[in-house]
Amino acid sequence: MKFDDSYGEYRKSGIFFVITGPSGVGKTTLMNRALERDERLAYSVSHTTRSKRAGEVDGEDYHFVDRNEFEEMVEREGFLEWAEFCGDYYGTSREEIKSIKREESDPFLDIDVQGAKQLRSDPSLDAVFVFLAPPSLEELERRIMDRGAETEDTIEKRIRIARNELSRIPEFDYLVVNKEIKEAVSDLEAIIRAERLKV
Ligand code: 5GP
């Protein structure tokens, strides 16, 4: 047990903190800041079939696999949830979550709205769903372009998907607006802190 008080039996561990939000909204930055400051959070490394971006590391940012490998894992029921996003597969493997739980850490997931919905439908899961939104769609478009990782075609596609994702906010427990990253981190930490204190 990681709890050093005498009320350990009332304290929860292994809460899933699920972060969803449009591509380019700043999920990675937000989550990295939270991870640096909270040793109980453990980032869940997803599998994906999309190609590696500059600076990404296999096994750290994602487990990069080809479509065949991914589909085999789907068939073996190796994923807790998975989805197709922008023409590529993304999924959270059961193995990844098992290893996080073995360490009694809280799985910290960056997944899309379809994945969040799948986890939401599993009542046995102790999970908290946070939607990270941009201050506006115009600002989001600017951020995606600044990242420079996408072609014009995928930028457009990602903006279209974002519009749809924003309409799904009511399916989430919390809404954090990423206007100032510092404030967004502090909002997220408040959520995590309160959820851990729940009896
Ligand atoms: P990106 O290509 O920008 O890294 O991610 C694209 C989208 O896929 C993001 O919205 C991200 O949250 C989502 N995503 C990343 N990993 C997973 C996953 O394991 N499952 C699902 N459902 N979505 C994921």
Give structural notes:
This protein has 199 residues and is an alpha/beta fold. It has one domain (8-197): 3-Layer(aba) Sandwich (Rossmann fold). It is 40% helix and 22% strand. The strands form two sheets. A five-stranded parallel beta sheet has the order 2-7-1-8-9, with helices on both faces. It starts with 15 loop residues before the first strand and ends with a helix. Bound molecules: guanosine-5'-monophosphate. Guanosine-5'-monophosphate (5GP) is lined by residues 23, 46, 50, 81-83, 85, 90-92, 110-112, 114-115. Residues 23, 46, 50, 81-83, 85, 90-92, 110-112, 114-115 line the site of guanosine-5'-monophosphate.
Which terms would index this structure?
four-stranded mixed β-sheet, 22% strand, binds guanosine-5'-monophosphate
Short description:
This protein has 199 residues and is α/β, with parallel strands linked by helices.
CATH superfamily: P-loop containing nucleotide triphosphate hydrolases
Mean pLDDT: 93
Order of helices and strands: EHEEEHEEHEHEHHEH
Q: Classify the helix fraction into a percent range.
A: 40-55%
What is the name of the CATH class? Answer: Alpha Beta
With helices defined by DSSP (H or I, 4 residues minimum), what is the helix count?
7
> Spatial order of the strands in the main sheet?
2-7-1-8-9
What amount of the residues lies in strands? 15-25%
Overall strand count: 9
Radius of gyration: 17 Å
CATH-assigned fold name: Rossmann fold
Shape: globular
Alpha-beta classification: alpha/beta
| Distinct bound molecules | guanosine-5'-monophosphate
Provide the CATH architecture: 3-Layer(aba) Sandwich
Q: Outline the low-pLDDT stretches.
A: none
Which sheet architecture does the biggest sheet show? 5 strands, parallel
Number of domains: 1
Terminal-residue CA separation? 16 Å
